[in-house]
Prior knowledge:
heterodimer
Amino acid sequence: MSNEIKAHVRVSNQRPTFWRAVSAIVRKDLASERRSRELFSAMAMFALLVILIFNFALEMDAGTRASVTSGVLWVTFSFAGTLGLNRSMAVEKDRGCLDGLLLAPVDRSVIYFGKAIGNLLFMFVVEAFVLPIYTIFYNINVFHPGLILVIILGSIGYVALGTMLAAMVVQARTRDILLPIILFPVMLPLIIAAVKASSAFLQGLDMEFIWPSLNILISFDLIFIGLSYMLFDFVVEE
Amino acid sequence: MEAKPRKLRVLDGVSIVLLIIATGMVFFYAPMEREMGNVQRVFYFHVAAGWVGMIGFLSAVVAGIAYLRTGNRKWDIIGMAGIEVGLVFFLINIVSGSIWAKPTWNTWWRWDPRLVTATIMELIYFAYLMLRQGIEDPDRRARFGAIYAILGSVSVPFTFLSIRIWRTIHPVVIGTNSPDAEGSFNMETKMLQTLIFGVITFSFIASSLIWHRVRLGKLQDKIEGLRMKVMS
């Protein structure tokens, strides 16, 4: 019997604390992903294809590469991200898991944070897969500590808002097409700031040029985590 | 069906008269701008439409918050009306701005913070409508609409900031000719009067339209209720 299942049994015996309940949801997502691997393989495959298409669409010679790297990376992350967000919420809805989660004697925001942290981990895994591949394909070293920081901050904001919207979209009739449409207009400032900060780090600009973008990323993250925490109750209310 | 309220009829009449006067003022009262010539006259309705579009969006946000707090259907209808009316006026704002920009900036479009922010707001309006269209349950539709209006309104200022910062990082892109400098002009008293009159006129037109839309929404609700009754 694996550790996760023991953990579930333990949690159900007593009223769980907030973070223990959150980590139970995260572990549940990780365990199901470890067995099926459908989310990672879809996201990684998709990310790979996007990078390949960009290569031919942009005629990526050495000069172009330097200037478009951060853009290509962020487009790849955000497209692959929508795939993951949609799927992670759809499985909850389809198999009736969401109702089960809602019946659990925990705060509704636990579900939000559990799903968001799970999504964030999947994002990180995909990004950790894409970065070395990008480095190999284009011979540009993207392992810059600043860039990693931007990717972490950007991914946090992306899943904070994306999990919220995905939870809404799965309850709609047109859910297969809706997520990118309602996600990208609201996500635009995050993507702009992330692209600008990444390319500034890659070009080795001074921190005084990078701070404004980083500030936007940090405040976007904080504000949308807070808003989602306040509003998520209304998303799953029945 | 209840008759159109008298106040609304008066508001309709006043809006039409004001629009005629405002159009007259734009063409005959406001003086010709020295450098740009007649095309500058777009400016009065351009600003007024943008103002009204912004009001429509903000009223949807306020109505969204009110809906989430009270659960009263009235607020959902008001929010929807604000978004729909705002959508139309913001489109007028963007298109008229483009018409002005062609002779003044010598291009239809520029990736300037204001232009992008206006367009993103328009796209959020559209996305809001598409989100609502995809949801059948009226309660859920109202809740999700309210949430999306709130999230969108928080994101829009971020868009403006993120683009403005990018411009300051790359001063070469705009060089000495900042967008503000190009096509700006000193407003004379008569121009200012025309502008204020235009803004007031558009506010009247928009409130009349929102009122109409709210009535329509209430009727829709009534029909939906009747249909439920017939089906059960």
